[in-house]
Amino acid sequence: LLSLFVKILGRAMIQNELFMSTLSTDDPPQFIKRQSCDISIAVSSPAGLLTPLIPSVDSKSVVQIANHITSLRDFINKSSPDKIPRIPDELGGNRSGTLTISNIGSIGGS
Per residue in 6-61, pLDDT tens? Predict the structure, then answer.
């Protein structure tokens, strides 16, 4: 279900340039349009909360996104609780996404 949500969100982002942008630190701030639709997901790890990247969701199928999420979870679950893991580049690396998805439902959010 998460992979389907990521894909739908990616398509919506492509249709609205504001969601494909980041805000600069210039004075006055300006919107900077990103070239790719990269989405991060909040994931609990033994070392704490991480937000690994799913790069270019606009060019991936729902199955490819699901496989990517599974690979990320497997990697993170094997990581040491003593330090934040360095996510390999083939899994998106430690870069930030254009948008981040978080699920607060697991801690009682609604």
Answer: 999 999 988 888 888 888 888 898 888 888 888 988 887 777 788 888 989 989 99
Q: What is the spatial distance between Cα 104 and Cα 108, in angstroms, rounded to a whole number? A: 7
pTM, to two decimals: 0.78
Q: What share of the chain is helix, strand, coil (3-state, %, to 5)?
A: 40, 20, 40
Distance, CA of 73 to CA of 94 (rounded, Å): 14
Task: From 106, 101, 91, select the one nearest 12 (Cα to Cα).
Answer: 101
Residue 71, phi then psi, degrees to nearest 5: -65, -40
Q: What CA–CA distances, in Å, run from 61 to 7, 84, 86, 99?
A: 8, 29, 26, 18
